[in-house]
Write a structure and sequence with these properties.
single chain; 560 residues; alpha+beta; Amino acid/polyamine transporter I; 2 domains; four-stranded antiparallel β-sheet; three-stranded antiparallel β-sheet; symport; amino acid:sodium symporter activity; transmembrane helix; membrane
């Protein structure tokens, strides 16, 4: 399993985690922001009028309303990225990562406006009578680059598993296991059945579910967040200050957090921001292409609201919850994930002085790697007797107990270690270290007015958020399958999608995040290229829209 993760991480290092990727993503968004004169600001208020249906016409072609398209797209983005993803970003990059998530969203509002407008403009009616749209259709119908459309569609199918399927159910099963002690396979089995029932009904059933689910789950989650923020109100201003104070300096080491470089915080923040709101990835345009409407620009305006709601609002509130609670820099008892663990040779490393923190941070960043342990690790009654140091979740681990298995008896004997990691994955390491993802957010929620009951809000929130994401992404995948092999292929895709959903409930979390990172990058790059090539088409489409608005609604004040 570790070898597979290393191989996937190597692939990801050349694309999604490469230094050039965030600049490509933000660069295209920034170009359109300037080229189209900041539409995410100028059209923001007007977008609410469109969502309410003020400019709709009777008989507009489509399967869903503007609001249903918005909630379907939001349900695809509001998921683990808002709960687990923000916690992972803060864990890796510190407070500065939250700033870059918000910046990514602000620029992404324009990117999403462009990609949704073009996808809606060049959509088609599928064989079964439903609307079929997305970046693959403007690539084929306008750019005459069917090869690029095929690449994007294949990447969409893969990304439906790597983004909308596997990380979502894995986070749900982890949360329900830690909170309610429900076995992951049970969670996977029950939710797989429900998922199958919903997605068989197609976009109309999906839209009817998401338009009710998205507002309800947001209210529940906000109650939990604000209970923590107000309970720790004295930490709110210092938390906000830390976001900006660490922007242009190395994020300071504090508590168990060993610090992060400027570029690392930037890369993590942009990467997690994209995973959260998917601006530029080309996923949301598939949902918006189903919306009833005669003007593609109007649907593009609706999409402007997505990154704002998803990242600027929800992710920011999650981030302030984590920072104000202080749990992001505290070590907590947890079962160690082998993929997050490294065993160093020697026991001279410490995090209670500056020199030790610097040495450990440089090891984690790869600047100055420390020697890892190879050989047989000696363990007596669960305690390590060999001269080693254990690193877990980017922190120095403490109070370590080695068990024969997860939840098993303390081990006495030898454990084979290769390149700093245990060879036998069944052996359990337990102790205190930093934590991330859903478990970190769950602990943060216990620091509010609800006390220990706060963790249940996270579990319920992740269940609703992540499950709704899985529902929406099944639709993105089936539209890609429709493009590639016709409507008849969708039923086979849905079977595999539900099966993958169940399997991912019991799979390794770290590997799932790595798969998701690769899938996002492979899907994003063709879309960014496509919308850039259609920049003049986009500008002309906007001009035609405002011209038509003046003729149809002469008394309407427009922000053209």
């Amino acid at each position: 399993m570790q070898q597979l993760n290393n191989f996937l991480s190597t692939i990801d290092s050349y694309i999604g985690s490469a230094g050039w990727f965030p600049f490509a993503l933000l660069g295209v968004g920034l170009f359109f922001t300037i080229y189209l004169k900041f539409p995410q600001i100028r059209y923001f208020r007007f977008a609410f009028k469109v969502v309410r249906g003020k400019f709709d016409r009777a008989g507009d072609q489509g399967d869903t309303s503007h609001f249903q398209a918005l909630t379907t797209a939001l349900s695809g983005t509001v998921g683990t990225g808002n709960i687990a993803g923000v916690a992972l970003a803060v864990h890796l990059g510190g407070p500065a990562a939250l700033f870059w998530m918000v910046v990514t969203a602000a620029i992404g509002m324009c990117t999403k406006f462009v990609e949704v407008t073009l996808s809606h403009k060049y959509r088609e009616v599928a064989e079964d009578g439903t609307m079929a749209g997305g970046p693959m259709y403007y690539m084929k119908n306008k750019l005459n680059m069917k090869w690029l459309a095929v690449v994007f569609a294949i990447a969409t199918v893969l990304s439906s598993f790597g983004t909308g399927n596997m990380p979502q159910i894995n986070s749900i099963s982890s949360a329900l296991k830690s909170t309610f002690s429900i076995e992951p396979w049970m969670t996977g089995a029950v939710l797989s059945v429900i998922l199958a029932f919903v997605i068989i009904g197609g976009i109309k059933r999906i839209a009817s579910v998401t338009e009710k689910l998205v507002p309800a789950m947001a209210i529940v989650y906000f109650l939990g967040c604000f209970s923590v923020i107000f309970a720790n109100l004295g930490n709110l201003i210092p938390s906000i200050t830390s976001i900006f104070s660490s922007l242009f300096t190395t994020t300071a080491a504090t508590g168990g957090f060993l610090g992060a470089t400027i570029m690392y915080a930037f890369n993590v923040g942009v990467g997690r921001g994209l995973f959260s709101n998917e601006a530029g990835q080309g996923s949301a345009p598939i949902a918006h292409a189903s919306a009833k409407g005669h003007e593609p620009v109007s649907e593009g305006m609706v999409a402007i609201l997505e990154p704002f709601i998803d990242t600027i609002v929800i992710c920011s509130i999650t981030g302030l919850t984590l920072l104000s609670s202080g749990v992001w820099q505290e070590k907590h008892l947890n079962d160690f994930a082998v993929t997050d663990m490294s065993i160093l040779a020697g026991h001279d490393y410490t995090d209670d002085n500056k020199a030790g923190r610097v040495a450990l941070k440089e090891h984690l960043s790869g600047e100055n790697p420390l020697p890892v342990f190879d050989g047989m690790l000696q363990v007596e009654n669960g305690k390590i007797t060999s001269n080693v140091t254990v690193i877990h979740a980017r922190s120095l681990a403490e109070d370590i107990v080695v068990n024969e298995s997860f939840g098993g008896a303390p081990l006495t004997g030898e454990v084979e270690i290769s390149n700093g990691k245990p060879v036998d994955g069944s052996i359990s390491f337990y102790g205190k270290s930093l934590i991330h993802s859903v478990p970190l957010t769950a602990i943060a929620f216990t620091k509010g007015w609800f006390g220990e009951y706060g963790q249940y809000i996270v579990s319920i929130g992740i269940l609703l958020f992540a499950f709704s994401t899985a529902i929406s992404w099944s639709y993105y995948g089936d539209r890609a399958m429709t493009f590639l092999w016709g409507s008849g292929s969708v039923k086979y895709y849905r079977i595999v999608y539900v099966a993958g959903f169940f399997i991912a409930a019991i799979a390794d979390t770290t590997i799932i995040w790595t798969v998701a990172a690769i899938a996002i990058a492979v899907m994003t790059l063709p879309n960014l290229l496509g919308i850039f090539l259609l920049r003049k088409d986009m500008k002309n489409t906007i001009a035609d829209y405002w011209k038509g608005m003046k003729e149809e609604f002469p008394d309407e004040k427009t922000p053209e």
